[in-house]
Design goal:
- The complex is a heterodimer of chains A (122) and B (279).
- Chain A is mostly helical and 122 residues long.
- Helices cover 57% and strands 10% of the residues of chain A.
- In chain A, the strands form 2 sheets. Chain A has a two-stranded antiparallel ribbon with strand order 1-4. In chain A, strands 2-3 form a two-stranded antiparallel ribbon.
- In chain A, helix 1 runs antiparallel to helix 2.
- Chain A is flat and about 55 Å long.
- Chain B is mainly alpha-helical.
- In chain B, 70% of the residues lie in helices and 0% in strands.
- The chains are: A mainly alpha (122), B mainly alpha (279).
Chain lengths: 122, 279
């Protein structure tokens, strides 16, 4: 157990059970810390919308790239800590990863579709 | 060989946090099954919302300048910000609710869940204010839909690039007559009757209402589940003495929060400057 976590060891009849009865519990410090991080990132998202980031980094659509990157950071914090995937089993990682992987596949198909120039303005 | 002999432990302990069903080897396996089952459901939810985001990306790629104008003219960044703040806070209170459920602090657990419920109410109040504005501005897709540029469009910074694509002549006349009629019911516009920009705006607001609406329905379903959990807890149901149902609901609630994390920059924070690079 890391310093950020606590373990409840169920104590029946004054004896400790084996380790597999521990439930992972997030400490209040960790939860508030993640919330603070989410707040900072929220302000960063709004900030990114009001500055022309293209002036500094000449890539088309730089603002939305930065904002989506921040959104991915925020979602990662929520998934890893609030949803406790970080302390989850390998099977949990596999399923959480499956959702992400599926979305990447769909994006890939979308880019393929768009690169064929089949999507045109109406 | 009896079940107890295999496991060396009673599957039905006095402690609800240790109880597990007879078809599981141990409590840990049951917990993992719960979590994996919930994630399997969340993967289907990712597919569901993912398809909507893909539709949005495709249309925004076709009309980036117009989408920026529609968003700037009629979507309130401040209200979206407040809602993001509310949902992130509700995620924190939900995480605390799961913590207290695991620690068997049932009083604090109920308090955290009630707080989460209140945040959800706040979210819906802000959403109602936003939807009311859209309704008053005739921005509900359908026969009454009529887009007017609003404050941001009046500045002419954004709209200029897209005006070239607008159809003139008869379409403009039809628009004027619709304007004169105000909110009076008109037949759904057929192709050509309504100018191009109107149809583009209608698609933008259709996407807006579908994406935020389905997200809102998820919030309402979450609130119903919270009420059910609280009623079951107060009536002493053994099902919610265990912390796992609350942890499962927590996963759902955090997922709803994540969807909004992406909806906010996608819909509310479109920087108009992108029109310079995607005319």
């Amino acid at each position: 157990m890391s310093e950020n976590t606590e373990a409840i060891v169920h104590n029946e009849h004054g004896e400790y059970h084996e380790e597999h009865h521990e439930h992972h519990v997030n400490s209040p410090g960790l939860l508030w810390g993640i919330y603070g991080g989410l707040m900072i990132l929220l302000f960063a998202t709004v900030g990114a919308a009001f500055f022309d980031l293209h002036k500094y980094i000449p890539i088309p659509g730089m603002n939305i790239i930065v904002m989506l990157f921040i959104a991915i950071l925020k979602a990662s914090l929520v998934v890893l800590f609030f949803m406790e995937v970080k302390k989850g089993t390998r099977l949990t990682w596999l399923w959480a990863g499956a959702g992400f992987f599926w979305f990447l596949m769909m994006l890939g198909i979308m880019f393929d579709y768009m690169s064929r120039n089949w999507v045109t303005a109406i | 060989m009896s079940v107890e002999a295999i496991h060396g432990e009673h599957p039905h302990s006095d402690d609800p946090h240790l109880t597990f069903a007879h078809h599981f080897i141990e409590r840990k396996q049951q917990d993992e099954s719960y979590i994996v089952g919930m994630w399997a459901f969340l993967v289907t939810e990712i597919m569901f919302f993912g398809a909507l985001f893909i539709a949005y990306i495709i249309y925004r790629t076709i009309w980036p300048g117009e989408f920026a104008e529609f968003s700037r003219a009629h979507l309130n960044t401040a209200l979206g910000f407040i809602n993001t703040l509310i949902l992130l806070s509700s995620s924190l209170s939900m995480a605390f609710c799961v913590r207290h459920a695991k620690l068997k602090n049932h009083g604090k657990m109920v308090l955290s869940m009630v707080l989460t419920f209140m945040f959800a109410c706040g979210f819906l109040v802000v959403k109602t204010i936003e939807y009311t504005h859209k309704y008053n501005d005739n921005l509900i897709p359908g026969p009454l839909f009529h887009y007017t540029a609003g404050e941001a469009g009046a500045k002419g910074e954004v709209g200029a690039a897209t005006e070239k694509t607008e159809a003139g002549g008869a379409e403009a006349k039809a628009e004027k007559s619709m304007e004169a009629e105000g909110r009076k019911f008109v037949l759904p516009a057929t192709k050509g009757q309504r100018d191009t920009k109107q149809r583009h705006a209608e698609i933008f607001f259709s996407l807006y209402f579908i994406m935020t609406g389905i997200h809102g329905i998820h919030v309402v379903i979450g609130m119903l589940v919270m009420v059910i959990i609280l009623v079951m807890f107060w009536s002493g149901s053994p099902l919610v003495q265990d912390f796992m149902p609350i942890e499962m609901f927590g996963l759902y609630w955090h997922f709803v929060d994540i969807v909004w994390i992406f909806l906010y920059p996608a819909l509310y924070l479109i920087n108009p400057d992108i029109t310079k690079f995607h005319p």
